[in-house]
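Intended use. Records like the one below are meant for learning the mapping from a protein sequence to its folded structure. Do not use them to infer anything beyond what is encoded.
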Amino acid sequence: MIVIGAGAIGTSVAYNLAKSGARVMIFDRGQVGAESTGASAGMIIAHHDRNTPPPFKALSAESARLFPALAEELKDRTGIDIGLRRTGVLQVALDDGTARELRHERAWQVDQGMVVPWLDARAALDVEPALNPAIRAAILYSEDQQLLPLALARALAQAAADLGAVLREGATIDRLLVESDRVVGVGLGEEAIRTAEVVIANGSWASAWSSALRVPIPVRPVRGQMVALRTPVTALRNVISGEQGYVLTKPDGSTYVGTTVEEAGFDTRPTVAGIGRLLQLAPRLVPRLAEATFARAWAGLRPATPDGLPLLGRIPGWQGVSLAAGHFRNGILLAPITGELIADLLARRRPRLALDAFDPGRFLVRAA
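Structure written out for the chain above:
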């Protein structure tokens, strides 16, 4: 079986296929995790609002649940620590209007059975002393997690390789080999490799296969810019999230500030405007960051779909080819469950979660 793409999604698919006994090859035009995975802040945010579709809630909740066991499994197999740790997320309000919206959203979440403490200004500052003292209120999601996304992809790739998978970095697949209605392999220049199954998991670039398959794969890139800052003071205890973005401390002591959401095609350049907005945001949430040192800036391309849900499953009208793409801002969160579900599907096992809401054919139905 061949997996196209070696980000968090592709490596998770490859690892789960290898665990099921399949012979696997993973191809990436660059390096493992070098695109959107490596650009991610690595947050595992499984709480939702009233607009989240129920199938997505189930998918993300199950994936978040898998992480602790997966982290131990990868450490045992590869020696790589993916940096998983529980980090509370403080959703903050800096004005009365936002506080009212926050209270309204919390009321709905509590009705759904979620445990979401309401914090007044004093309580919020007790939980996170670095917060802006002008804070009006906050709510705390104490069960959220974060990790090192590049370490996750590398650990998954190495674990797959230890089980016999072949990883080929710097290898660009330029065509699919087709016989009638079946994809039977891939081509790289003069090289042709036949296979039983191809899994397209190359994120924002998945749409490039639409023409060859004569099927819409409506995945588009959405740029997200990030900034890393250095500060000698104590690390933040929590992820701090506001209306315009978030700040969090990573295990190496750097503080990440994110993120923009921009329709910029495949342009991965950080811009003055985007980085400027993030640098203004940081001290608004955490005043001491005004004295931080600028370390670096970067941008990644999130793979978005028209309805905000990933594309998981067989491509309609074809045999031998499946999609695992379109995860938008949730690629890290959904990596474990995506790998398991795609491996189950290709092994002709009944996936333990229904995939109907994520069927790649849903856009064909709408077009018809």
